[in-house]
Amino acid sequence: MLKCVCVVLNYNDAKTVQEFIKRVENYKNISNLIIVDNDSTDDSYRILHNLYKDNSKISVIKVDENKGYGFGNNIGVSYSWNKFKNEYTLISNPDVIFTDEMLGMLLDVIRKKDAAVVSGVQLTKDKREILDKAWKIPTIFEYIFNNTKLSRIMDLTSRYPQEYFSNSLSKVDCVPGAMLLVNTMYFKNVGGYDEDMFLYGEETTLGYKLKKANYSSFMVNDVSYVHIGSTSTNKVLPQASKKLRLIYNSRLFFMKKYLKINKVTYFIASKVYTRIVKKVEKREKV
Fold this sequence. Notes:
Layout: E1 4-10, H1 14-24, E2 30-37, H2 44-52, E3 58-62, H3 69-84, E4 88-92, E5 96-97, H4 100-112, E6 117-123, H5 140-145, H6 149-154, E7 169-172, E8 179-183, H7 184-189, H8 202-212, E9 217-227, H9 231-236, H10 240-257, H11 263-285
Parallel strand pairs: 1-2, 1-4, 2-3, 6-9
Antiparallel strand pairs: 4-8, 5-9, 6-8, 7-9
Helix pairs in contact: 1-2, 10-11
């Protein structure tokens, strides 16, 4: 039976991780679970380590510095490869709910298609499909202006049209990072997530790197999972303006490093993003 190793990241959220482990520990399609504590500032690591230290299926490791989502998950994938030489790795947030049957279908697709990434449709906690269930690598123009009035006038979007997902399988550029199944070697061949991005934008960057390396990513449209919603992130970043700053910093980094934008374009993007953030900050003060 084809199996995978599951990597789950923890930051100050041991309770959510424990609930996740209870749900998936006995799944037949998961051979091992790796919890990566991203240098939590509370008792998370001690709690999780003590809880699972005698469980041969679960490993709890700790990084010495919180360098973000991508860094932590890269550590987990590398650890799983070094220890288990696993062909496939499931990267999942702890606040995600999926079935063993669904994971089995993803494993079947990733093997048959020799894909780098496979995922299902993400649902909100009230079972609604998210709008960004998969997307294309954005153009520079889309990335700069997609949250502006110009975007609404010109209908700027990197989303695929809904009809693109009418078949059971769709080839896509990028999938959400809440839960995705990766070919471990393909993921490592492109360097995994970019560790210079702390939070947000990692999925687009990974999709860009995989596509450039001629690897394929797929959405399985007739299976789904529930993402309860950024529990640990909301604790640290409760304000929308702070989240926006991180999102836009990641976009600037991506466009500079991967899309090779010039200084003028970088300046324009910075001004557009700063203006949007200031508007949000003003609303928060009201």
